[in-house]
Amino acid sequence: MEIQGSDQIGSFRVEHGGLSRKGKLPDAIHDLERHMIEEAMARSGGNQRVASGILGITERMLGYRLKQYGLKF
């Protein structure tokens, strides 16, 4: 992970696993979370039980996040 900062508040660029984000921390966290969920769902062949295990969260939490992000697998 690489983080580049500047002397201005809210002006960070974060690169992690091919993701690049400039802006506020909450936005970057949501982008990373969505990317990780998409990756886990793809790796699990759409199986929420397996994907939740990959992510280390409950199936219920994964279901909530899928709905929150409007993701369908």
Give the topology, please.
Blueprint: E1 2-4, E2 12-16, E3 19-23, H1 25-43, H2 48-55, H3 59-69
Antiparallel strand pairs: 1-2, 2-3
Helix pairs in contact: 1-2, 2-3
The CATH topology: Arc Repressor Mutant, subunit A
**End-to-end C-alpha gap:** 28 Å
Helix/strand structural class: alpha+beta
Report the count of strand segments: 3
**CATH superfamily grouping:** Homeodomain-like
Radius of gyration: 14 Å
State the domain count. 1
Describe this structure in words.
The chain has 73 residues and is an alpha+beta fold. It is built from three helices and three strands, in the order E-E-E-H-H-H. It has a single domain, classed as Arc Repressor Mutant, subunit A (Orthogonal Bundle), CATH 1.10.10.60. Strands 1-2-3 form a three-stranded antiparallel sheet, covered by helices on one side. A hairpin with a 7-residue loop joins strand 1 and strand 2. Helix 1 crosses helix 2 and helix 2 packs across helix 3. The longest helix has 19 residues. The protein is globular. It starts with a strand and ends with a helix. The N terminus is likely disordered.
